[in-house]
Amino acid sequence: MRRDDLGLLVFLGALGAWIYLNRTKVGGAVESAAESAQAVVMGWATVNEGPVWVPVINQTESAYGIPANLLARQAYQESRFRADVIDGTTASPAGALGILQLMPQYFSTVQVPTPFTAADTTSQITQAAQQMVALYNQFRDWGLALAGYNDGAGNVNAYLAGNRALPAETQQYVSEILADVPLPSALTV
Q1: How confident is the model at residue 95 (pLDDT cuts 50, 70, 90)?
Q2: pTM (2 decimals)?
Q3: Lowest CB count within 10 Å: 34, 78, 87, 184, which one?
Q4: Closest CA to 137 of 126, 148, 127
C-alpha cells in the first residue's frame, strides 16, 4: 500500500468515527458521502454494521443457493448497513423497513415492533432470500431477479413483454450491485 493510500485510509477512518460520534448533528448527505467513500476505499462489506451482518447473509446465501455476496451486496444497497435502518427505527420514504427494506404489507418479518432484534433481522434476511430465490425461479436470471425485487415482478414482466421500460432507479440498482458481484449469467437491464 502506498503512503498516500494509507493517509487516505487514516483520514477516512477518522472522518467516519467523527461522523458516527456526531451523527445527530451531521446531515444525511455528509454521512452518506462518508459512507460511500469508505465503501470505495475499504469495501462495501466493511461499512457501518456490515461486518456484523455480512457473515449472516453469506450463510443464508449458501443455504438458499444464492450466488456468494449477491444478497449481502443487495443489503448494502438497501440499508447501507446503517443501524437505524437495520433496527427499523428509520423507514424508507415508501415505508420499507429493515436491512433489506421489506414492505410491511408483504413481509411478515417486518410486522413486529421496532427496534428490531438481531433475531428479527435474521428472519428478514431469510425472508428476503426466499423472495430472491422465487424471483430467480420466475425469471431464471439474477439481474432480472434484482430488478423484480426493486421494481416488482409484474413490472419486470411488462418490461420483458416490451410494454414498459425499467425505471432509471431500477437500472442503477441492478448495475451497481452487479458491478460489485459480477455474475456471468446475469442480464444487464
Answers
A1: very high
A2: 0.78
A3: 184
A4: 148
